């Protein structure tokens, strides 16, 4: 009815007054470009300086940080003067990763240190406790393609990387016996939020020497629900380990975790070196923070 009336008015206007009404076509832009999710704006896979000469300046700065870690001589057998190649390769590999979203797992800066340390130490055996989507397992195998690699997680339901080189076990690593290996050429990465004292004692009993821990705050910087308590940093600083529990607020809730002072003391005595890897988030300006610690027992 409305259309008929509209047509009648239009024809009257045209025939009696000579006024022709045209429909103005809306200017619809070409199909909208799919927008990358904003969460990737700080992802070096999508946002980076294109000019190779400027890329190289960032690589050089990061290589300087790796060199300063290596000056500690934790890995006497490591090939020196290779940091720049490691950094260059890392950027390339990181950009090529198949699954981009690793929320709740290692971000760019943790990935940087994982890759750099694994490449430098070049272990024959790599063990990871806390696999999540498999992103860090994939990265470790990129760093050390010839290593024998194991991954442990109490649930492998979230595993996304399907072509991993690592053997995956849906269990805690505690009850697993590894075939004989050289402790100088092996690396364990704990990213499972389990009590660090327990993990260090287990690692020692299994014959490991080179350890990486994620989430290792000292007692005065604990505010999240994830760290394994007591943390290695608490043991090294000797703070908060003489008591049987500690509490803190997380997201408005009180969290309380038990501590076994005897176990903490035993683990503390195992630690020969404890080195919190420098956070390079400020250096790259990609932001976020890494909290990876290298420990030697
Ligand atoms: C932060 S995620 C690991 C992230 C992963 N390493 C990465 O960087 O992408 C923590 C994982 O630890 C696992 N986890 C919890 N308890 C564990 C245990 N006792 N042994 C091994 N993994 C455990 C969780 O299931 C979860 O997948």
Verbal overview:
The chain has helices at 2-17, 52-70, 83-95, 108-121, 135-143, 196-206, 232-237, 261-270, 281-284, and strands spanning 125-129, 148-152, 167-169, 186-190, 210-214, 245-250, 253-258, 273-276, 292-296. It is of the alpha/beta class. The chain has a single domain, classed as 3-Layer(aba) Sandwich (Rossmann fold). Helix 6 packs across helix 8 (261-270). The mean pLDDT is 89. Residues 102, 104-106, 129-133, 135-136, 152-155, 172, 191-194 line the site of S-adenosylmethionine (SAM).
Can you lay out the helices and strands and say which pair or pack?
Layout: H1 2-17, H2 52-70, H3 83-95, H4 108-121, E1 125-129, H5 135-143, E2 148-152, E3 167-169, E4 186-190, H6 196-206, E5 210-214, H7 232-237, E6 245-250, E7 253-258, H8 261-270, E8 273-276, H9 281-284, E9 292-296
Parallel strand pairs: 1-2, 1-4, 2-3, 4-5
Antiparallel strand pairs: 5-9, 6-7, 8-9
Bound molecules: S-adenosylmethionine.
The top-level CATH class is Alpha Beta
Number of strands: 9
The fold-level CATH name is Rossmann fold
Q: What's the total helix number? A: 9
Helix content: 25-40%
Under CATH, the homologous superfamily reads Vaccinia Virus protein VP39
Percent of sequence in beta strands: 5-15%
Strand order of the largest sheet: 3-2-1-4-5-9-8
Order of helices and strands: HHHHEHEEEHEHEEHEHE
The bound ligands are: S-adenosylmethionine
Number of domains: 1
CA-based gyration radius: 27 Å
Shape by Cα distribution: elongated
Sheet of most strands = 7 strands, mixed
* Poorly predicted regions: none
CATH architecture: 3-Layer(aba) Sandwich
Measure the end-to-end span.
Answer: 87 Å
Coarse structural class? alpha/beta
Average pLDDT confidence is 89
């Amino acid at each position: 009815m409305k259309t008929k009336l509209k047509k009648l008015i239009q024809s009257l206007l045209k025939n009696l007054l000579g006024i022709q009404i045209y429909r103005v076509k809306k200017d619809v832009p070409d199909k909208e470009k799919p927008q990358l999710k904003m969460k990737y704006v700080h992802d070096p896979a999508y946002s980076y300086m294109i000019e190779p000469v400027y890329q190289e300046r960032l690589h050089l700065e990061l290589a300087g940080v790796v060199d300063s870690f290596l000056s500690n001589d934790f890995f006497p057998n490591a090939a020196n003067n290779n940091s720049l190649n490691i950094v260059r390769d890392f950027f390339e590999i990181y950009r090529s990763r198949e699954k981009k979203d690793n929320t709740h797992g290692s971000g760019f800066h943790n990935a940087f240190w994982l890759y750099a340390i694994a490449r430098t130490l070049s272990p024959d055996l790599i063990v990871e406790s806390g696999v999540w989507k498999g992103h860090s397992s994939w990265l470790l195998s990129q760093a050390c393609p010839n290593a024998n690699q194991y991954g442990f997680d109490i649930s492998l339901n979230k595993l996304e990387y399907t072509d991993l080189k690592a053997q995956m076990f849906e269990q805690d690593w505690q009850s697993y016996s590894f075939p004989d290996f050289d402790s100088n050429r092996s690396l364990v990465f704990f990213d499972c939020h389990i009590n660090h004292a327990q993990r260090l004692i287990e690692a020692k009993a299994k014959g490991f020497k080179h350890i990486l821990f994620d989430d290792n705050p000292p007692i005065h910087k604990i505010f999240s629900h994830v760290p394994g308590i007591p943390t290695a940093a608490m043991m090294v600083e000797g703070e908060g380990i003489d008591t049987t529990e500690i509490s803190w607020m997380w997201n408005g809730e009180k969290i309380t975790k038990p501590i076994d002072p005897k176990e903490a003391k035993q683990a503390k005595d195992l630690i020969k070196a404890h080195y919190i890897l420098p956070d390079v988030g400020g250096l790259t300006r990609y932001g976020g923070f890494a909290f990876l610690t290298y420990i030697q027992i």
